[in-house]
Write a structure and sequence with these properties.
single chain, 298 residues, alpha/beta, 6-stranded mixed β-sheet, 5-stranded mixed β-sheet, 6 helices, 23% helix
Amino acid sequence: MKTVLQCLAACFLCTTMSLTAQVPAGPASATKPEPHVAFSFAVVADPHCAEKPRYDVHKYDKRCGTHVERFLRCVSAMEALGADDRPDFILIVGDIHLWELRKHLDKITFPLHVIAGNHESGKRKQEIRDLFPQDFQVNGKPADYYSFVHKGCRFIGVCTSGRGGDHVGHLCSEDIRPAGQCEWLERELAQPETRKFVFSHIPPHPDGTDRNSYMSRNDSRFFNALVRETKPIAMFFGHQHQPTREFPIGQTRAFVLRSSAWNSRAAPLGFLLVNVTAKGIETRDVLTSVLPEEPPQP
């Protein structure tokens, strides 16, 4: 009897070991689902802070003020939002004229993350890097593109602005430093965060067509293919001074924003508010133009 029991026990142990061996243990470094933290951020395009307002061309109420004042109207609108909508930070997607805006940074109550526009080439890019050194670096060295992680989301700032104010966007240029932005972007979009956002100045053409005020034909096609493969949640661009519009690139939502300074046919000024939720994002186009019935500011 003892021998029979020992044999049965041995068989049970072998079977258990065999079943256990068929279920491989996960690696110690396996990525766990990211805990969701809801938050909001704002995106502002093309503040053009140093330009003199052209009321003869862009017929806004003169109470909109200077372009700096128009940007600060966006900040005031953000400050007036409720706690759930109040942004953690502001993305500015190019044509900032930082040499003027920097005089007013004490009036801005939110952290800023910026990227150069076609108005910021050469020494103007250096000015941006110097003012935001914590952002503009790759591998600890100064760069015109960068990324940061906020509450489990990766934000990827892509420089599309070459030399001399070209209105066509480029991913590679002697004025985009260091060389190798495309390879860097591939690595960034392969990082482990499941929620990624891209921000830049000049958008890709949705169909990869050769058109002014978009990335060049080949850059658009490379960029769109990479986005379709890696599926960031959303992307934000400026440059075109039109009412905010959205189009898809694969499963990714792409937004081209209205300017906070001036838009074609005097389309309203404003910014985009983005709420990050468990299901994705919710967006709201916040308009900041002075309306005719709005009383003068004291």
